[in-house]
Amino acid sequence: MPALGGQRTVPAPDAIARDYVLLALRLDQLDPGLVDAYIGPADLKAAVDMEQSPSPTRLRDDAAALRVRVAETVAEPDRRAWLDAQLVALETRAAVLHGEELPYLEEVTRCYEWTPTRRGEAVFDDAARELDRLLPGDAPLDERLAAWDERLVLDPEGLPAVADWLVDELRGLAAPRFGVPDGDAVRVGLVRGQPWAGYNWYDGGLHSRVDLNVDLPIRAPDLIDTIAHETYAGHHLENAWHETVLVERAARLEASVLLLVTPECLMSEGLAELGPQLLVPPGARVDLLAELIERAGLPIADDPGAAREAAERAVALAPHRNRLREVAVDAALLRWEDGVSSEETLAFLRRFGREPEERARKRLEFIESPRLRTYIHVYFEGEPLLRRWVDAAPDGDRDARFRRLLREQLTPGSIATDLAGSPPETAGRIRPPG
Hints:
Blueprint: H1 15-30, E1 35-38, H2 42-50, H3 56-73, H4 77-98, H5 104-112, H6 121-134, H7 141-150, H8 159-178, E2 185-191, E3 198-204, E4 207-213, H9 220-230, H10 235-249, E5 257-259, H11 263-279, H12 282-295, H13 306-325, H14 327-337, H15 342-353, H16 357-368, H17 376-391, H18 398-407, H19 412-419
Parallel strand pairs: 2-4
Antiparallel strand pairs: 1-5, 3-4
């Protein structure tokens, strides 16, 4: 069948996939942006565009009815579990649009098949003590961190060229370990006025557009994290393999619509946080960051050996700074579960995140975004869940486990079940070559 855009064809969907796609596209009419990408049959999108917008109540009931049909008719256990988890989230989203009020944690759990947990102030204080040790000085820690970051800020005019080089480097690392479909492509642009640091827009046909948000200064170490998260071995690579394996080879057309606020997001963001760690471990990251600093022409690189010294320190600081980033989890729970005000939440972010006000406000903007208020948890819950599963790989073959994340329909529930010692159902699992 002709796919959306008219440049590709896709297999015809079965009845379950067709109705799942129609449900998702109809919900997107009521909640624009819920559909993050659609690469499926053009006629389904055209049909929904011509319809009168349905009520949230009808879509909630449609999701519940489709769950029953999935349980009764879908033979493949992995596909059945994936569809069920997604439909619980869509039913929840329709109920929220209808005006039903759910406790925040219940909404998060139903949307992502996972319940977040508070980190606790002691976690952030411990991370701050490590940073204080690694970055000594008399000024307050947040001021020392800001001064350190200032040395690594990239010139926005040179960002596109540096980003393109970095994409090519990461692709070269990913290809032999995780595989890269032939003909894939990524292009990078700059934007402003968004609550996120970077975004992958998947266009189908193995092509992605990646936007970098320059509202705040972009630091060299952060550029590596963001580009790797959005491309290799993160969102672009996952989407390209899902299109190749699930849509084209297996004709599971439900994978042709990518949805926000569903369990696939916890898997996808967890994968995009974990993949770069596997692809570029600390030693290799020092080399990559040192070269990036030199290519970007940062003044710090003028002194012999300074670029590598800065890269080594940045890599040493990274795990503790990442722990501080988890302050967003507790802040979201304070804001939405406990009912704390915006200003109190901002003060919490500043105090325990040890960040300047402008960066704390950007985190608060994300947390208070109407759709993203639950989304903040998928990064910080998805990565440790998938890391535990990958680390538990038989024979220590972590790359093989990660390749499964790129190619299969797995859910937070199936991963948790496997980790608990009860292997998830495997009949019908797709294991393509490569």
